[in-house]
Amino acid sequence: MQRSITRRLRQSTVYFFLLVAAVAFLTPVAWLLVTSLKKEVEYISWPVRFLPAVPQWANYRLAVTMGNFARYATNSAILSTAYTSLVVISSALAGFGFARHHAPGRDALFMMVLAMLMVPGMVTVIPQFMLFAQLHLTNTYWPWVLWGLSGSPFHIFLFRQFFSAIPKELEDAAEVDGCGRFRIFWQIFLPNSGPALAASAILAFNWVWGDYIYPKMFLTGANTTLAVQLVSAYADPKGNPLVTVTMAAVVLYTLPLVVLFFVAQKHIIQGIVTTGLK
Amino acid sequence: MTAVQLSGAGRRRGWRFRGRAWREAVSFYGFIAPWLIGFVLLSVVPLVFGLGISLTNYDGLNLDSVRFLGLQNYARALHDAEALFGISRTAVFTALYVPLALTFALFLAGLLNQDVRGRGAFRTLFYLPYVIPIGAAAWVWRLVADGNYGLLNALLHLLRPGTAVQWLANYATQVLVVFVVWTSVGGAMVILLAGLQGIPKELREAALIDGATPLRTFFAITVPLLTPVLFFQLVMNLIGALQTMVAPMLLIPQPMGFNVLPPQDNRLYMTFVYFEIFTKARFGYGTALLWILFLLVLALTLVVFATSRFWVHYEVE
Predict the structure, then answer these.
(1) Is the interface score ipTM higher than 0.95?
(2) What predicted TM-score, i.e. pTM, was given to this entire model?
């Protein structure tokens, strides 16, 4: 009897903390959604009004029509898709190389992959910026293509972990049948690595779509992405900021990632866990 | 080819073996070629180039009058009050952020590892901010912490009418820490949760049957077994915290636009370096500052690795 009471008490404490944390985590997001539905005069009234009198769905229409939303969204989509498709393929190739071959220098090179996970990004990116500027590659999408082509340490690590876990028999059988290494990779390993491919693709897409600093450094004007564009607020013709409309645009900008996350959260979390645990 | 055919059987076998190893090595380098070429051209070359630039007075335009300065840029950094201030603010930020983020992630993972209904839903919920891109997340917190129309002040007004706090200006570092914890804790949490679920239940149950309290079991059994995962998280969080650059640039009280310096307290080292390079075009000095960060991060990582044998429990295989 006493045991069940302490058990109950413990359960309620756990739920209590979970609920408090959930409210704390979600409130800022809720505040964003609420603000995106206010009239601008409601937003700038004091004392603060928590909810809009009438939800202003028109803010969302304005968010798309006022600025050049479609243009920057297209830029973001092109950049994200191009980088993602390239980085997944080249990282899978390298991951397969590291996981499934013995060769002189392999372990030292894999240490390099791991070391690059720890080198502060800006230490290489800022000199890259200077070099790309000399080659007139800034304000083009070439940097993302080159980054994609050369794979990413994080994704290589992910694929290497995944491919290492595939039974050797599968490979041996194919080898006996006379399959070349590339065919083994392309026709046996890749089709069997759906979860790793999904995790890698989604994380890569999220990274570029959500990235602010690289497009800010490398791109200007009409070539830049939604992330950079939305950092400054929309303004009405007189130059007054329109925070509520901007927030509607911010919601629209974030939505694809949230939807992607809900559709494929199992894969994303598996990918994060694979690279974080082993 | 003919040589192989002319030689004896044993010799031929040796050749075949070498052929196989050779083929495997060729195949290996073929598969990693895209990465390897990229690694040389996009990592090694820029690193060396940056190191070279850091020894000059390069400012982006003076290619014909570049002078070799030796270690002058590095010496200058040691006397640059702004750089040193940036290091001290980064130290404060890191000392607040890393323990808070790890404790909080472990706390949430520990809660979710209990027998709770709706574990998946809670996990999704805590992970959600991690998916929100930094530009959008910065807007969220600028709205919440706004000095005039922010949620924090609105709630404060309910408790004590008439008070309004300029959070983004006067509590800049605190807001920054909360912001970065909010956006990052989900990632660490799912990893720690997976680590917790990998610990055999029997161990905890045995301790509980022996009369240990759940809290004691957690700290005496669960946490030690989790130290390898915690260690990896600690290293990655430390490295991330030391190079924090964008969050302070976005979390400013003024309207966001181009090149607005964050409030004094949030001028972290990398933020300062960014402005040196991109608004003052001090490429030579800036790359020296980058290399100083690189060395500091490396040194700190090595120190953390050296301490690991005192507190990280690796299973003996």
Answers:
(1) no
(2) 0.90
